[in-house]
Design a protein that fits this description.
alpha/beta, methyltransferase activity, two-stranded antiparallel sheet, transmembrane helix, 7-stranded mixed beta sheet, 31% helix, Rossmann fold, Protein N-lysine methyltransferase METTL21A, binds S-adenosylmethionine
Amino acid sequence: MALVPYDESSAVPALAKLRESSAEFHFANHSVRLTQDWNRLGVAAVVWDAAVVLCMFMELGHVELKGKTAIELGAGTGLVGIVATLLGANVTITDRVPALEFLAANVHDNIPPSLQGAVKVSDLTWGEGLENYEAGAYDLVFGADIVYLEETFPALLRTLEHLSSERTVVLLSCRLRYERDERFLGLLKRKFTVKEVHYDGQRDIHIYKATRTADKRDL
Ligand SMILES: C[S@@+](CC[C@H](N)C(=O)[O-])C[C@H]1O[C@@H](n2cnc3c(N)ncnc32)[C@H](O)[C@@H]1O
């Protein structure tokens, strides 16, 4: 399975900041300092623009977070889940097993003791072990830059369907690099009502809101 979202040779300037050993942000009145390690874990150990844009979107108050139950898929360094926790949600932050130790350390280092009980780091490889996650139990499902591997699209869709009920809001923050990424949105629209709710032109990041509607459930 390809590990990078795009051909490295065509994206050298963009990759420079990904190779730094840490990335710092200020969200929700907190400094968030995330360790990065491209050489150790590749895409899962660096902060992608899609995560930053989704955090800005949340901080601007576009998402009701207080007291909500949320899950983040393909969290990488965990920025989105960390900021959602700081803004008042109860968050399960997930990624594949190889990324978990790194993710858990970043989450632990950036969540104040009083909020450690509101966050959990957990293994979720898309499409696998879904029975470990209660079906339709989440108010919010987040994904930042997780639409890039065509071979994972069916499993990712199954995962989104499993986690969502009709009251769930799925927020996908995406850079659409290839036609295949657009194809994923087409597949998503077969089961969800999908609306673009934000576009950051400077970073070329789209945020899509997807909600599962009763009439699309059985199509
Ligand atoms: C481009 S990175 C984005 C990381 C983070 N969300 C961000 O925006 O900074 C893609 C993430 O998806 C995760 N991922 C890739 N395939 C996956 C799969 N089949 N199941 C779960 N996570 C996966 C990777 O481990 C990685 O953390």
